[in-house]
Amino acid sequence: MSAKVKTHDQRKKAHRPKGPWLNRVFIGMLTFCFGLLTFIFEGFVLRDIETIRQPDWETYRSQRSDQSLSELQVRSSELGRQLADLDRQIKRQEAEQRVLQDGSRNLQETMQQLVELQRLSIQKEVAMSEGDQANLSTALNQFLETQTRYQSFNKQLQDQHETKRLAEDEKRSVDDQVQQATAPIRREYDQEIRQFRMRLALYQLLVLIPLLLASGILLLKRPQSGYYPVFLAFGLATLFKCYLV
Fold it and tell me: Which residues, 6+ apart, have CB-to-CB distance to 236 below 8 Å?
């Protein structure tokens, strides 16, 4: 019995901290820094594993798409380009229409001034000069021509808006068909991605688990070693990294 007590006291003395408290704090800080560096280094190793490229969606979809789906995708792209071109045409024509509208407004003001001048001439029983009559006639012709062009632009804009509406309806229908045909492929791709991530996590654990086992063995076999805090910091850093994986 006394031998057991003696052995127990020896173990307590072996585990009792030695040296001034300042040295112990310094050693603790160094141990913490070592654990942090271990964690960072293991992060670098795991990030190298994460550089393995996952399956690309576009490549995966193209490999599993049939002819009809490919044709629908091509048609959707064509309609998208057509709609973009129609938008550009509509914006350009609307800009030209605004210019015509401003010109028509200016001509209308000029005509009103000339008509008012003609009215005053009639009231005063004075004939308008040939220049004013020519200006009135020219302004009237230009106004009518501008109105004709304005109406033509209106008709073109109406036709383009109708064409755009039909193209949008067709593209919406085509996109719905593409989405329905792509849905099974998307589910397969998502499953492939899940399996890829599981493989990636397995590769990372295959790196970390031997390190964790090694630190555990050292902790069990050398509990009284001066490097015990180092083994402990290494093991805790590796264990936390395994948890994050």
Answer: 35
Q: Provide the residue ranges of all domains of the chain, joining segments of one domain with +.
A: 19-244
- Contact (CB, 8 A) for 192 and 60: yes
pLDDT digit string, tens, across residues 109-155: 666 666 666 666 666 555 556 665 676 677 667 767 777 777 777 88
Give the whole-angstrom CA distance, residue 242 versus residue 245: 5
**What residue ranges in 6-116 does DSSP mark as E strands?**
none
CA dihedral (117, 119, 124, 126) positive or negative: positive
* pTM attached to this predicted model: 0.53
Q: How far apart are CA 21 and CA 18, in angstroms?
A: 8
Q: Long-range contacts of range 155-161, CB-CB < 8 Å, 24 or more positions apart?
A: 156/93, 157/90, 157/93, 157/94, 157/97, 160/86, 160/89, 160/90, 160/93, 161/90
**C-alpha to C-alpha distances, 180 to 177, 187, 191, nearest whole angstrom:** 5, 12, 18
What pLDDT shows up at residue 95?
82
Task: Give one word for 141, left, alpha or beta, with left for phi > 0 and alpha for psi -120 to 50.
Answer: alpha
For 140, 153, 154, the CA distances from 148, given in Å and listed in that order, are 12, 9, 10
End-to-end CA distance of the chain: 49
